Amino acid sequence: MAQQNSVFHAFYTNFLGNSARWYKTTIVAFLLLNPIVVFVFGKNIAGWLLIGEFIFTLAMALKCYPLLPGGLLAIEAILLGLTTPYTVYHEAEANFQVILLLIFMVAGIHFMRDLLQYVFTKILLKVKSKPLLAFLFCFVSAFLSAFLDALTVTAVLISVAVGFYTIYHKVASGKTFTQDHDHNHDGGVHEYHREDLDQFRSFLRSLIMHGAVGTALGGVCTIVGEPQNLLIAERAGWEFMEFFMRMAHVTMPVLAAGLTTCVLLEVFKIGDYGALIPDGVRSVLSETDADRDHKRTSPQKAALIVQAVVAVILILCLAFHLAEVGLVGLLVIVLLTSFNGVTEEHQIGHAFEEALPFTALLVVFFAIVAVIHDQELFHPIIEAVLHMPMDIQPTMFFFANGVLSAISDNVFVATVYINEVRAALDAGDITREHFDLLVVAINTGTNLPSVATPNGQAAFLFLLTSALAPLIRLSYMKMLVMALPYTIVMTTVGAAMIYFFS
């Protein structure tokens, strides 16, 4: 008996790894409850319950990566007959462009990190005005996210911040640059450096949040800024420039409002913003950067030039739609690896590590979407909205998408709504002109209000779960509070533009 209990305990321990006991119990309860609900109440009710359970796994992403519990729920849905493997495959096949985008574009930008880090490093050290520095971080992040990928730009910001933090933490602990050091613990930090270190944390915290919001401001503008954008563009039949132009009446005012908010937060030191970099910290970082520039070899300089040239090629390919976005990403990989001496398989493979987990999660999204499709769960809701006065329908879609995106995930929400609206167009229930207005509302609704929480934006969640967050004391609640001013401004301006131009 003791041995059986031991084996059972081992299975329970392995199930979902280090997740909290209550979380594991909840997921098990979901899996046991669903067959009962199907048998007693039918597949329609079970489908709605499944959606709620899946949104729960997204909202609790910090407890366990949603691929695991969400994948178990998706497998059970197929076994219970809520959908079929064929429908799941059909959904994935229909969104193949998005899958290619995640696999190849994110991996391609990985090989451009040296250039991006160089740009952000120079901005941080050369600009002395904090409001101007915050503006540049936010604007550059927005610009890069519009042409590259919000997740990758956030990864670069994290890398730069961790690098600077590590350098100063080592100096503050009385170590030389060549000595080993653990920057996760403050035990060795000299007392007279502690105040500067705390201020430096606050400085980095505000800067990284400005940059993260910038990825959302830029990400909403183009088909490559966020994964759901390409999916939406594909359903609408829009290419790069058409997508940009159709969104511009909302995205450009929101961008201007967001950048203005960034400056005002720093000027008036609202909330946790406004901290300056201590002079001692700036001196240490400047010396380190100067030493790095001095030691940069000719091959390293050539690599930066190649990355800059490929960045221009990337922008031109996207602007003129010379190929599908995923294939452009593959082009970037081939060019950067070929001309920068990356020849080993493991070096190339490392670039795909960031994208593939989310790509797998995206296919799980499609499995849940397949349930929604087969059980026609959202059809009554879409019908109800489409029977409202036409002039308020886009605004309703904007807020509905925004609320759901903030508590779950914007890719999932966008997938559901764009499919339903496209189905309404194909059925002749709405005109093409009205469909275009609803597409704008869905895209902006899933991208703008979702900055309210780390759950809604993949880049925010990536930042919160990164190695940087504990170093600069960026908690879940801290991120909520710091994102609040942006959430209010971006949502208000976005909703106003949707309403007045619909």
Characterise the protein shown here.
With 502 residues, this protein is mostly helical. The chain folds into two domains: 1-82; 87-502, no CATH class. It is built from 24 helices and no strands. It has helices spanning 2-14, 21-41, 43-59, 67-79, 85-94, 96-110, 113-126, 130-147, 150-172, 191-219, 227-236, 240-267, 279-295, 298-319, 325-339, 345-351, 355-375, 379-386, 393-407, 410-426, 432-447, 458-464, 468-471, 476-500. Helix 3 packs antiparallel against helix 4 (67-79) and helix 14 runs antiparallel to helix 15. The longest helix has 29 residues, at 191-219. The protein is globular, with a radius of gyration of 24 Å. The mean pLDDT is 86.
SSE topology sketch:
Layout: H1 2-14, H2 21-41, H3 43-59, H4 67-79, H5 85-94, H6 96-110, H7 113-126, H8 130-147, H9 150-172, H10 191-219, H11 227-236, H12 240-267, H13 279-295, H14 298-319, H15 325-339, H16 345-351, H17 355-375, H18 379-386, H19 393-407, H20 410-426, H21 432-447, H22 458-464, H23 468-471, H24 476-500
Helix pairs in contact: 2-3, 2-4, 3-4, 3-17, 4-17, 5-17, 6-11, 6-15, 6-17, 7-9, 8-9, 8-10, 8-12, 9-10, 9-13, 9-22, 10-12, 11-20, 11-21, 12-21, 12-24, 14-15, 17-20, 19-20, 19-21, 19-24, 20-21, 21-24
